[in-house]
Amino acid sequence: MLRSFALFFFVFGCVSKVLCVQGSCGTRSEDAAPQGAVGCGCGQLRRDGAVEPVEDRTASEEPADKYSRGANERLPEGRADEKEMQSQMVLITGGEFLMGTDDPGIPADGEGPQRLVLLDSFYMDIQEVTNQQFQSFVSVTGYVTEAEKFGDSFVFEGILSESVKNQITQAVAAAPWWLPVKGASWKHPDGPDSNITDRLDHPVLHVSWADAVAYCSWANKRLPTEAEWEYACRGGLKDRLYPWGNKLNPKGQHYANLWQGDFPNHNSGEDGYIKTSPVMSFPANGFGLYDMVGNAWEWTSDWWTVHHSTDQQHNPTGPPSGIDKVKKGGSYMCHKSYCYRYRCAARSQNTPDSSASNLGFRCVSREQR
């Protein structure tokens, strides 16, 4: 089936003109993007959109290390207790919390108004679903993801091999670093010539919302609501930017896998990674949850809306219908100048059939699994 790719998607969530001036606590964030920051165009990406021809790369191609491939890249170390860790969930004790913010980093995303939400207790996976977990699911069920059915998925140009990149003739008009790649899927996250052999403990990628729902159902779990996700992200802290507080790098330490350097041209890998990292590579938040921001975007169950009631809500589930689903947390591609969405209150959206090289998920349940 022939489809024209483009402006479908989400990838690290952005708007055409991002004004990231203040943090959600009323003071200027140390990593807030400057006024007039260039938008990434991802919010408009859709499978049924239009792409444009890729410019001739031969004359203007920068050196092969343009995106710092291999910089500080670490091979994942095997964990003896990996199977046990994969199924571990933690109880998130219910209660009231302030959802959203009255001082949005990206107003157009519907980050506000701040409102009081009451949640019942639930259990959440301490980590994003890994390649190994998803592989087990596929082995048992024979499940085929939507990216595999479509025959392609979006991949960030910087992680593609030169041979694959040179075969691609189209790119997303508003974000030319996103390319539709035939053969890209959860098994081949960086294109058809890549595999997951050395990254079984990394988050599974190229999974659509429906793929994530299928996995969670198989595991007798479900996707979190946006309210559950944000409550869990905050880790018991009130009105803070990140799962650990207001400073991005307390005492110079990295608490999430994000982009360092000049996006999209150079990722210095100061946090140790230039692509996804093994789950649990960074400190957990107050609830014992890892990678709630950065690494990979995470699907939620809610339909997208930018209009929210200020009335107190109990276990809100979002609007009854819509076009896009909410995703939270940002990814390894988030940088202050392009995608200031690695905050707990930040949010973005994509169509349920969307998939890309920086989007994954985790599951929740009302009972311990």
Features:
single chain, 369 residues, alpha+beta, 4-stranded mixed sheet, 3-stranded antiparallel sheet, 6 helices, 17% strand, globular, disordered N terminus, disulfide bond
Rg computed from alpha carbons, rounded to a whole number of angstroms: 19 Å
- Number of separate strands: 18
Which strand order does the major sheet show?
16-15-13-17
| Overall average pLDDT | 83
- Helices and strands, in order, run as EEEHEEEEHHEHEEHHEEEEEEEE
Quote the distance from N terminus to C terminus: 39 Å
Which consecutive residue ranges, at least 5 long each, have pLDDT under 50?
Answer: 1-39, 56-86
Number of helices: 6
Pfam family, one: FGE-sulfatase
Subunit structure: Monomer, homodimer and heterodimer with SUMF2.
GO molecular function: formylglycine-generating oxidase activity; identical protein binding; metal ion binding
EC number: 1.8.3.7
Protein described:
- The protein is of the alpha+beta class and 369 residues long.
- It is built from six helices and 18 strands.
- The protein has helices at 82-86, 131-141, 146-150, 162-165, 209-218, 226-234, and strands spanning 17-18, 37-38, 51-53, 89-92, 95-99, 115-119, 122-125, 152-156, 170-172, 178-182, 261-262, 266-267, 297-303, 313-314, 325-328, 348-350, 359-360, 364-365.
- The chain has a four-stranded mixed beta sheet with strand order 16-15-13-17. A three-stranded antiparallel beta sheet has the order 4-7-18, with no helix packed on it.
- The termini are far apart.
- Mean pLDDT is 83; it is low at 1-39 and 56-86.
